[in-house]
Amino acid sequence: MRKLWGGAFDGDSDDLVDRFGQSIQTDLRFWHQDVAGSIAHARMLGETGILAKSDARRLVEGLEQILTEGPSKLPQDVEDIHTAVELRLGEVIGDVAGKLHTARSRNDQVATDTRLYLRARLGEIGGRLKKLQQVLLESARRHRRAVMPGYTHQQPAQPITLGLHQMAHFWAFQRHGRRIEWITEWFNFCPLGSAALAGTWFPIDRHATARELGFSGPVPNALDATSDRSFVLDALHVSALVMLDLSRIAQELILWSGAESGFVRLADNVTTGSSIMPQKRNPDMAELIRGRTGRAIGNWTGFAATMKALPLGYNRDTQDDKPGLFESLDLVADSLRLTSIMLETAEWNLPRMRKAAAAGFSTATDLADLLASRGMPFREAHEIVGRLAKSAAGGTPRREAVLEAVGPDLVDEAMARLDPVRSAMARSSFGGPGDLGRQLRRAAILLRRPGFGSAV
Ligand code: ARG
């Protein structure tokens, strides 16, 4: 294996040592960022006079050629991406390539590369969040008056609308979008030029490289810049949170596409068959999203354990931030897309949902509210309607029973309030199903704006 070091060593490292420490296969994911970071560094070396202008120009031209030719030309019998790029640069421009590593270290390089890569991926994930929000908003618009059971404790509680339900998920993704913007703002500072841990005596211009790479500025402390991986933990945490919410959607789709519920039919392009039972339509994608959420949580806790008690200064332990990070980011990106497809093509069985909303005595609260609105203390009303529910034994009470409970003056209004559609639409307090128009308008404004802007 070819290395960037060895002058001080007499013997070769053991093959197992090479294999155990090698990260090139993982690193290839951010080869572009590594070369871009080197271009900014080389330009700065020329502009500050640390290298002759002609040398800096050759370095930049060689690196630009590497960007154009792509990663397939990079050697892979090397320790990491930094070695690969420097060796390839030597093949392209000759010995002057050896000047590139002036006033920097792989420690500040890898920290810079990871931030650049993460920034790009989070930008892409933000776009996918917005796409899913668009799908949810359209579904909510279509199903504004589509009544379904609302659940608490997994038991039918009060009738709601599918519109309210879809918008509930919409807001979760608005918060995730905002979280992504926050963490990006926190980590968008540049470690480059911190060198190994302590800066350098060369008169480098860290502000110039930070600016060129689109950072808000340089990380102020060289030791912190090369030691900090809290931005990786932030990204792993947000990834786990996004997956958590996707797993909740997945679980609903799994439950609701089952025969007992039958609220939804997932389209052919997101369902799979069984090799033995010909009639089966399995929601495998939703199950995989639900299951792999465990990996996203594990990647966060796993790397948190790696970072725990790690002393300041670069430690090789942190090399292992990347496999988990890449897995979580890929998982989030794919799962967001799959969820968008599942929801965009889902066929909701609205009559069935409406029927389920009417089953049981799901409008019991409406009756208690009616009595309370006519002056009876709510607690007493709750008691009366509770007895009515008991006598109806899990079903909807008959008119005679209602008459007995509420009296002749209120019986007509009480019977009307047993209608689940009326029940849902009448709850028009801020945020209720009867007030959905307000949310839909607000959501449309947020979606039209670039980025996420606000959490609500
Ligand atoms: N592959 C290393 C990483 O990802 C690059 C930095 C190596 N630095 C060192 N001193 N060995 O962290």
Write the layout of secondary structure elements.
Blueprint: H1 15-21, H2 24-27, H3 31-47, H4 53-69, H5 81-93, H6 106-142, E1 147-152, E2 155-161, H7 162-187, H8 206-212, H9 222-227, H10 230-256, E3 264-265, H11 284-307, H12 321-344, E4 347-348, H13 350-358, H14 364-373, H15 378-392, H16 399-406, H17 411-416, H18 420-426, H19 436-448
Antiparallel strand pairs: 1-2, 3-4
Helix pairs in contact: 3-4, 3-6, 3-8, 4-5, 6-7, 6-12, 6-19, 7-10, 7-19, 10-11, 10-12, 11-12, 14-15, 15-16
Bound molecules: arginine.
If you had to describe this structure to a student in words, what would you say it looks like?
The protein is mainly α and 456 residues long. The protein has three domains: 16-102, Fumarase C, Chain B, domain 1, CATH 1.10.275; 107-147 and 159-202 and 219-351, Fumarase/aspartase (Central domain) (Fumarase C, Chain A, domain 2); 356-435. Helices cover 61% and strands 4% of the residues. It contains 19 helices and four strands. The protein has helices spanning 15-21, 24-27, 31-47, 53-69, 81-93, 106-142, 162-187, 206-212, 222-227, 230-256, 284-307, 321-344, 350-358, 364-373, 378-392, 399-406, 411-416, 420-426, 436-448; strands at residues 147-152, 155-161, 264-265, 347-348. The strands form two sheets. It has a two-stranded antiparallel ribbon. Strand 1 and strand 2 (155-161) form a beta hairpin. Helix 4 packs across helix 5 (81-93) and helix 7 (162-187) runs antiparallel to helix 10 (230-256). The two termini are 53 Å apart. The model has no long low-confidence stretch (mean pLDDT 95).
